[in-house]
């Protein structure tokens, strides 16, 4: 669990006289606070995080799954050539001249390999100059998930694409004037975080909360990530904490009204059973 999440949950539990150690923070759960029930449930109709305002662009090639932001009809190499052409017009024409001038005697197996390696080296050099890129690997076995580092089981996994952002956009997005080593690492961490969020969505690791009580009815969905259920519970506890204050204020106001109207003590005891329960 994220340390900040744990810290905030403990603080909210203290305010509501809950024992943090008794909370069920894995998967679906139910927490009772006097007459109020908080249910943490899986979100069966979650919106893909790729619909959010993301910094990176995820490009994927897969025959059965519609993954990421883009699913190009062109090849992996042609798409990357297009990326370079977008920031360095004339790159495609340069590659065409390279192919045209390649010695005809070199078009044997080794010559073709040498040519392809040269083209790939030129693509990589240009991409490295203009973009931040991380590979995307898919694991497909009784469900799917994704990461940027690869999986140990090569039989059920492999690279399906990549996530990228231009260096210009990264500077604008994060307010970087200079791309230092530390800042470059931060950009890669941001891209990896987007992939982790998307992986949680692919795994169905998305939650929401439902709050039920005689004077409260609330819900919210779309908490994605390894700690999705924890963040959902934190938000629900915050709402109950605010409701606790409202209930206390309502009780005080009603008692003040009885005193002002000189309601007899016996009658007040009778009416007290209708007061909101203190949390």
Could you give a quick summary of the protein structure above?
The protein has eight helices and eight strands.
Index terms:
single chain; 4-stranded antiparallel β-sheet; 279 residues; 8 helices; 2 domains; alpha+beta
Description:
- This protein has 279 residues and is an alpha+beta fold.
- The protein is built from eight helices and eight strands.
- Strand 4 and strand 5 (144-147) form a beta hairpin.
- The chain is elongated, with a radius of gyration of 29 Å.
- The mean pLDDT is 90.
* Main beta-sheet strand count, sense and barrel state: 4 strands, antiparallel
Global mean pLDDT: 90
Relative helix content:
40-55%
Widest beta sheet: strand line-up: 1-2-7-8
> Which range does the strand content fall in?
15-25%
Q: H/E order of the elements?
A: HEEEHHHEEEHHEEHH
Return the domain count.
2
* Oligomeric composition of the shown chains: single chain
Cα Rg: 29 Å
Low-confidence stretches: none
Derived structural class: alpha+beta
Q: Figure out the total of helices.
A: 8
Protein topology:
Blueprint: H1 3-15, E1 29-33, E2 36-42, E3 57-60, H2 76-87, H3 91-101, H4 109-130, E4 131-140, E5 144-147, E6 157-166, H5 167-174, H6 181-202, E7 206-213, E8 216-224, H7 228-260, H8 265-272
Antiparallel strand pairs: 1-2, 2-7, 3-6, 4-5, 4-6, 7-8
